[in-house]
Amino acid sequence: MNVTPMKQPSAIFPLAMSLAALALVLGHAAMYGVVHELDEGTPAHVFQLLMAGQAPIVAFFAIKWLPRAPRETVAILALQASAAFAALVAVFFLT
């Protein structure tokens, strides 16, 4: 049975979570503008949950798939890391 790592939920969910966090930041900035708030609101907490929640999923994916398909796994991990980095950069520059 030839199963690719990209078709695994543990590869797709962290990427989707990072993109959702990025969309949350961009949507908040589009609706309310770039405002420095004193108190963190619900979007900030949802962002934090999305970013922290993907860490165990990425760790599980790496532990399971690095020995089986290292080249594909490293490419997927790089894609996940770049999506998370994009979300963090958006927070840094827009808040």
Could you please describe the fold and organization of this structure?
The chain is mainly α. It has one domain. It is 77% helix and 0% strand. The protein has three helices and no strands. The chain has helices at 9-32, 42-65, 70-94. The protein is elongated. 22% of the residues are buried.
- From the alpha carbons, calculate the radius of gyration and give it in angstroms: 15 Å
* Distance between the ends: 47 Å
Tell me the count of domains. Answer: 1
Shape: elongated
Which structural class do you get from the secondary structure elements?
mainly alpha
> Which ranges are low-confidence, i.e. pLDDT below 50, for 5 or more consecutive residues?
none
Note the beta-strand portion: under 5%
Helix fraction, binned, reads over 70%
The DSSP helix count reads 3
Mean of the pLDDT scores?
92
Reading the helices and strands in chain order gives HHH
SSE topology:
Layout: H1 9-32, H2 42-65, H3 70-94
Task: State the gist of this model.
The protein has helices spanning 9-32, 42-65, 70-94.
